[in-house]
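Researcher: Re-running this chain for the archive, since the previous output was lost when a drive failed. Same request as before.
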Amino acid sequence: MKKMNWLLCLAVAVIVMQSCMKNNNDTPATPVAGLMAFNLAPDKNQVGFEIGGNRFTNQPLAFLSYNGLYTGVFTGTRTLTAFDFGSYNTIANASNTYEDGKYYSAFLIGANNNYRTVVVADGLDSLEGVAGKAYIRYINAIPDSTTPTVTVTANEAPVNSAALAYGGITDFMAVNAGEITISTSNGSNVNTNRTFAVTDKKIYTILLAGNPASTGADSVQTRYIENGTLQ
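Model: Regenerated structure tokens:
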């Protein structure tokens, strides 16, 4: 795996360091993967996650929140459960196989009692740290029957423009560092855009989420988070 900065590796390293504490038998390290979890369900503001029956988040996640960094989880095929933090009622489950040293993201999406959890392998070990280049990807978590077109420009130059169905997530794509603009529209009730700066060698996930029928805090909007930095 390519070298990542401490933001990416901190939570995974906690488990690795604990499992690597040597005794007289020189016990080998326990295999571990990194997982990041997001709540993109606009009508769920108290979401928790557990994996393999163990709590993954200690605090409830509001809409558009995430657990903050990659956290270490044990490897193998495991079930991730999103649940209501107050009642502990299950919202959605997703089974996935987690591999040693790999990074994953989980997104709770949906609305109106129709939810699912999307788990993806982030493939960070395939990305090269190149001066002047950043990496972005985006997920369409807008619970709508239409398929909006998502258009990306970097420093006003076109990068990508294509329809992205609900629940779809792109691979990471390289863009020139500087200002990028991402616009999402279906020609009617979905219309959002945002411009922000990206820094070279950094990795970003862009979140397209919200209720198309709302004009409040849960309305359709564009957010982004920083996954980490390539060395």
